[in-house]
Structures are given as structure tokens and as C-alpha cells.
Amino acid sequence: MTFDYAHQTDWPMTSGQHQSPIDIQTQHVQSSQLSAINWRGLYQAKTITGEATTLKASGIGAAYLNDRDFAFQQIHFHTPAEHLIDGQAAPIEWHLVHQSATGQLAVVAVFGRIGKPNSSLQGLLDQFTAQTSHELTTPVNLTELLPDTGTVYHYLGSLTTPPLSETVEWYVCADTVMIGEQQLAAYQQLFAANNRKIQPLNDRPIIAERF
Ligand SMILES: [Zn+2]
């Protein structure tokens, strides 16, 4: 499916009260002692999938999210970030899409900040070929793209691309992960901006969980 980030109001949508992304206002979040994320085992990308708007790679990995079992499916990137924290946008956000055995979707959102180069991102950039799906010659270890501590903002929302289905548990990590300035520039050379506009929170709670 193709869609145009310059004409987002034309995107088809079947419902509309629980959409993503959102601006997370930290003074309004509710605290919880729940353990949001426990990474379990190695995250590894094995295939890069052809996409017009983003670098997407699928592979293996597993996590407990709110104490339930999820399998990692794919990672992809948005520049600039889609979610905001207190109105502030990071230069890049990546989505680690997970699914449970019963089909529940859960996405862990991670913000990048400019700092030292990220070897996991470099591994993906090195093996990227425009708009073709291919097995990676060398599987890419994704460990450096996973934060390992901090606060996670949990809420219920939607896919941020059509069909915008309201079927997603979101886990937005407050702690950022470093990527190199030249890596961000290389990524932006490949892809135009692909952030969906901020959506109304409506009556949804946002839970701050530990991690
Ligand atoms: Zn995404």
C-alpha cells in the first residue's frame, strides 16, 4: 500500500478516538510499579523488506511486555520522531513491533539522539538496498538499538500508517539511544520525512512503568 505523508487527512481510517502517535504530557501520567519490558534473548535482523517510506527489517527476538510473552517481528524507523514528550521531538524514532501468540500487537518505541555511532543501525544501513526484500548476508545484532533501563510510557493506540487500526499496545521509552550524526544524515538521504501528525489523547490514561 502506498500513502503520502503530505496528505495525511486522506488516509483511510475505520475508527478514530484512540489514534497514535500522541504528545505525552509527563505531568499527567499515572505511575505504576509494573515492569514494562524484559528483553529475553538476542534480537537479530535477518531480512530487509522493501518499503518506499522506511527501512524495515524483520527477524527474531522475544520480550515480556507487562509480564506477557511477545515475539519480535520487525523494526522500522521514522524521521523525525512520531511521539512527542512534553512537546519535544527527537530526530528519529524506531518501532520494535511485537506480537503475542494470541495476535495482540505491541510496539516498543525508542528515540534516538545524536552521539556516538550505533553499530546495530550501521549494520542495517550497510546491507540496505532500495526497495527490494532480501535476506541479510550477515544477520544484524539489534542489541544497540534496545534501551536497557528507565521509564516507559504505556498507552493503548493505533498503527501510525494506514489502515491505522486501533489494536496496538504502545511502550514508549523515555530514555534515548545514541546514533551518529552521519548515520542520521545517511538515513535521511534514503528516506523523506515519515512522521504521522500528533493525534488527540481523548480520555486515554498514560501509565509510567519501570524498566
Ligand atoms: Zn512505525
Automatic annotation (TrEMBL):
Keywords: Lyase, Metal-binding, Zinc. It is an enzyme of class 4 (lyase). Pfam families: Carb_anhydrase (PF00194). Residues 1-211 form the Alpha-carbonic anhydrase domain. Residues 1-21 are annotated as: Disordered. PROSITE patterns: ALPHA_CA_2 (PS51144). Its EC number is 4.2.1.1. InterPro entries: Alpha_CA_prokaryot-like, CA_dom, CA_dom_sf, Carbonic_anhydrase_a-class. This is carbonic anhydrase. Residues 11-21 have a biased composition (Polar residues). The keyword Metal-binding applies. GO terms for molecular function: carbonate dehydratase activity; zinc ion binding. CDD domains: alpha_CA_prokaryotic_like. It catalyses: hydrogencarbonate + H(+) = CO2 + H2O.
